[in-house]
């Protein structure tokens, strides 16, 4: 079949050749060098006629009153990733909206100029994710300053407005050879203390015999990190005195694993 030849106005009695049929009658869309060439050739277009213009690489159609572009740029596909969405930006130019993240909905931006993905409103109080970690690593703390217990977990909030509920069960033993030994704990975000639990555990010990007091510290705090970056929470401990071998030892194995749980709650 011959390539499309454009538009031809056949006259009464004219004999159609095979080339005429292939080049004019068999084509679905007329092909012209330009809009001027189209308008010169098609003086009485009918609604629904289509014409392709070579100079601008656009397809036009007749609405019944005027020729209109089917697209303005030859419709170069802007999408690059599975799940992308295409929309019309300023000047009717095709634009790409990248795929959003799990749980987001498609909405209109604040300027009402383009679509965007956004975490749906009304999610306040809902659990968005849970992260948990545990440790049985033995750690001896003989310091009156807060020291890491090796219990930590990292979470990446999905929204800066989210709150993080920190729940921690810290297992260990407090030791001293004399009287009054106390262990205090704190929850730390990064390097910042967010909540301190002073004198969480203690014992009065009589005589010089070394005595240990088993400790299960149940800690909890609702934090507002105001970030969407990876955030680490950890537990630290200290003793009130290091004299007479005062120290705190975290659980070193067995069934007494220390556990920390981070729960992201939507604002």
Task: Characterize this entry briefly.
Helix content is 6%, strand content 45%. It is mainly β and 267 residues long. The chain folds into three domains: 1-75, no CATH class; 85-118, no CATH class; 127-265, Jelly Rolls.
Structural notes for this entry:
With 267 residues, the chain is mainly beta. It has three domains: 1-75, no CATH class; 85-118, no CATH class; 127-265, Jelly Rolls (Sandwich), CATH 2.60.120.760. Helices cover 6% and strands 45% of the residues. The chain contains two helices and 18 strands. The chain has helices spanning 18-25, 35-41; strands at residues 30-32, 50-53, 58-62, 67-69, 85-88, 94-97, 105-108, 115-118, 127-135, 140-141, 147-155, 163-176, 181-189, 192-203, 211-223, 231-239, 247-250, 258-265. The longest helix has 8 residues, at 18-25.
What Rg, in angstroms, do the CA atoms define?
A: 37 Å
Helix/strand order: HEHEEEEEEEEEEEEEEEEE
Structural class: mainly beta
Helical residues, percent? under 10%
Quaternary state of the chains: single chain
Count of distinct strands: 18
Task: Please state the second-level CATH architecture of the largest domain.
Answer: Sandwich
Euclidean distance between termini CA atoms: 65 Å
* Largest pleated sheet: 6 strands, antiparallel
CATH topology of the largest domain: the name is Jelly Rolls
Shape: rod-shaped
User: What CATH first level of the largest domain would be assigned?
Assistant: Mainly Beta
Keywords, please?
267 residues, Jelly Rolls, mainly beta, six-stranded antiparallel sheet, 3 domains
């Amino acid at each position: 079949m011959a390539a499309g030849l454009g538009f031809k106005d056949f006259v009464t009695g004219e004999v159609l050749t095979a080339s005429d049929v292939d080049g004019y009658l068999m084509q679905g869309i007329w092909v012209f060098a330009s809009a001027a060439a189209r308008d010169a050739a098609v003086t009485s277009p009918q609604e629904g006629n289509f014409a392709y213009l070579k100079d601008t690489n656009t397809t036009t159609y007749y609405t019944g009153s005027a020729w209109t572009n089917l697209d303005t740029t030859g419709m170069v596909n802007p999408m690059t990733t599975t799940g992308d969405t295409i929309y019309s930006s300023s000047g009717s130019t095709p634009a790409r909206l990248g795929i959003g993240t799990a749980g987001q909905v498609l909405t209109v931006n604040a300027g009402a100029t383009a679509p965007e993905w956004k975490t749906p409103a009304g999610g306040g109080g809902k659990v968005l994710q849970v992260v948990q970690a545990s440790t049985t690593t033995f750690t001896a703390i003989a310091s009156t300053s807060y020291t890491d217990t090796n219990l930590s977990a990292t979470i990446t909030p999905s929204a800066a407005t989210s709150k993080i509920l920190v729940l921690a069960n810290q297992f260990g033993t407090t030791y001293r050879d004399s009287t009054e030994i106390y262990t205090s704990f704190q929850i730390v975000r990064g390097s910042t203390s967010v909540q301190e639990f002073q004198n969480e555990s203690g014992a009065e010990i009589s005589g010089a015999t070394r005595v240990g007091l088993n400790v299960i510290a149940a800690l909890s705090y609702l934090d507002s990190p105001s970030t969407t970056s990876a955030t680490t929470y950890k537990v630290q401990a200290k003793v009130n005195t290091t004299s007479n071998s005062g120290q705190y030892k975290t659980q070193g194995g067995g069934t007494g694993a220390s556990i920390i749980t981070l729960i992201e709650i939507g604002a």
